[in-house]
Amino acid sequence: MAASRLPGFKVLVALLINIALFVLCRQFWSANKTSARSLQHAVQENMQLEQYVRQLQFQQDIQSGALQEQLQMINELADGALKAKKTVIKDEVHLEANNNKPLSSFQVPKELHKTHDIAIPRDIPTWTEADTAHLETITGLDMMAQLLREDYNKEDDLTDPSQIDFITIGRAERMYKSLWNHVYPIYQSLPAFRDRDREKALLELAKSHAEIDFFLKLEQRLFPWLHSQRRTAFSLYESYSGRGYVLCAGNRQFEFVVASIQAIRSKLKSDLPIQVFYINHWDLSENRREFLRQMTYNIEVIDISTLLDNGYMKLGGWSIKAFSILASKFEEAILIDSDNPDELFSDPGYQATGALFFYDRSLGGGAKVAPNFIKSVILFMSTFPSTTRMLRRVGDHEQESGVVVIDKKKRMTGLLSVCKMNGKWERDLWTYKKFYGDKETFWFGFEMVQEPYAFVRNYGGVVGELGENDDTSVCGAQLHLDHRGNPFWWNGGVMRNKNEGIGRPLLFGYWMSGGGSQEHRERNVRADDLKRNLLFDLDLNSEEELVQDSLKDPVWEFKQSCLSGWSVNPLDEKELSLANSYVRLDKVAKEIEQKMAQNILADHSVYNWEEV
Predict the structure, then answer these.
(1) Do residues 551 and 600 both lie within one domain?
(2) What is the pLDDT of residue 577?
(3) Going by C-beta distance under 8 Å and a sequence separation of 6 or more, which residues neighbour residue 409?
(4) In this structure, are 398 and 471 located in the same domain?
(5) Which of 323, 534, 558 is nearest to 423 (CA)?
(6) What domain range is 487 assigned to?
């Protein structure tokens, strides 16, 4: 009877063999798609299969040598497949360990994202010996030739935008950043007995080191205005120290600069040094320069063309601002007006990134030209641009450049890139046509070289007085809040409405935020792809399951300089006293400017600024 059952049993065992082979082959060929965790499951499956076959052997009292050979073949195949699978998974784990490295090594505390929008940049690869060797190859020489094409003389008059290739500029600037990190330690190691010894030694070293030679040529092509008094940016970089204010002044801005300086000294009680930059003797008259020098202590008034080559920069208007930060002697610089500088330097976003920016007002129906320009030029972006009003086409502007705080020792290549965006031909042919003046060039320049930066998470609001017959709106100057949501500084002077020619002083008493709260921005105005990610992370099936906030940004009436649709807040006693003192300072500054305009020498000593 056992013999009569044997053919059927052989069929059963053969079927089991085929199933086992199918399972093993499937496990083997899908190994590259499994994780290390699947190895344990495969081993368990094999053990269960072997145990089942052994039980079947005992139950059926298998004596056939052929069947034993087939079972042995199963075991050998299983062992081989599992060994192969272990090898594949080991290689896969090794690959994951190397390939799953995050795009950015720059991190900030999670709590910081509640008060700031942080640009987490992509890492720029470190320069290696292999990169240096590549420079000597045919492709390396071709690459250098491509990146060194950016070149023009002081006398050139560029009219064709195609002569300024921002994609190539971006590649060159990122290459420059990588080389900076490689060459600067070499520069530091060179002997220096006199000021320019290291520069001379580096130039000599460049004759035998291809990467140093390439670095110096890139710098000359990208930033030719640096080299009127020096041969490398390193000497300027090493001259920076301390903290201070940077202001820009021309004849037309004189009265505002006077008021700002005295606000810093007599009202905010800051002793930090001040540097005031102007373009040339036509830009700021000698009598105005002398008044500024005499009006307070620890102040310098400097012609920027004595430090940087204005033959290349051809500065005018807004463009002087970024270059003034670069040329200033300070390691940590605050540009233009603000509240107490100690508070800005202690801002957690600034401390984490080395660069602090503020948002502009939410105006317009969405930028039409700038988004396409940004996307076409910045091929590698940080985490910031995709969340901006500009790229989401819900606002015309992003940054208010009235106050900028930069640690130049941390963010030198970012600042150089910002200056490049404000160069003569870059601004005339591109950036100032795509953006409103210099507003966006700061974060845009940092993006070009992937440097981190922080925005205080509040849009521009308003400080001033209640609207006419409307206690739900506030009208006046553009207000900016600190990271705690308190009034911090404003832009636009102390007049009721300079846009409409209403010249009376503001009756300060109230303020309103410009919106941009975390809940609103995270849940209502995020891009569709980010919303899908949020649904996935929260394990939700549809948008209907996502809790929606009803918050909307307040609305600007730009011509009237009024804001409504948010809570109206009264200024506290200290804020009100400070605002009214600015009104008095502004009045005195206007009187001084009137004398200057009539070539009447104004005596600074007759003004008791403490009592103004």
Answers:
(1) no
(2) 93
(3) 237, 240, 331
(4) no
(5) 323
(6) 461-580
Identity of residue 364: G
Q: Is 5 exposed, middle or buried (0-12, 13-18, 19+ CB in 10 A)?
A: exposed
* Count of the separate structural domains present in the chain: 3
Count of other CB atoms within 10 angstroms of residue 411: 20
Calculate the alpha carbon distances from 195 to 191, 236, 436 in Å. 11, 11, 41
| DSSP state, residue 338 | -
Nearest to 237 by CA among 414, 370, 364, 496: 414
- Residues 320, 432, single domain; the answer is yes
Tokens of 578: 């400070």
CB of 445 closer than 8 Å to CB of 421 = yes
Say if residue 345 is in the same domain as residue 386: yes
For the chain, the distance separating the N- and C-terminal CA atoms, rounded to the nearest angstrom, is 120
Write down the pLDDT at residue 86.
Answer: 47
**CA separation for the pair 610, 267 (Å, rounded):** 7
Q: Give the integer Cα–Cα distance in Å for 516 and 552.
A: 9
Residue with tokens 């052929």: 66
Residues 576 and 603 in one domain: no
Q: Are residues 398 and 298 in the same domain?
A: yes
What SS3 class is residue 479? strand
Confidence (pLDDT) at 91 = 43
Assign 478 to helix, strand or coil: strand
For residue 176, being part of any structural domain is answered with no
Helix (H) or strand (E) holding 519: helix 518-523
Using alpha carbons only, give the angle 331, 335, 338 rounded to the nearest 5 degrees.
115
**Is the distance from CB of 495 to CB of 502 less than 8 angstroms?**
yes
Low-confidence ranges of the chain (pLDDT < 50): 1-5, 28-29, 31-40, 42-43, 53, 56, 58-59, 61-64, 74, 84-98, 518-527, 548-550
Going by C-alpha positions, the residue among 446, 444, 454, 378 that lies closest to residue 412 is 446
Q: For 108-126, write each residue's pLDDT tens digit.
A: 999 999 899 999 999 999 9
Claim to verify: residue 413 and residue 511 sit in the same structural domain? no
Tell me: do 249 and 301 sit in the same domain: yes
Dist CA 459 CA 480 (whole Å): 7
Interatomic CA distance for residues 376 and 397, integer angstroms: 18
CATH number at 325 reads: 3.90.550
Q: What is the phi-psi region of residue 253: left when phi exceeds 0, alpha when psi lies from -120 to 50, beta otherwise?
A: alpha
What is residue 606's predicted lDDT score, i.e. its pLDDT? 83
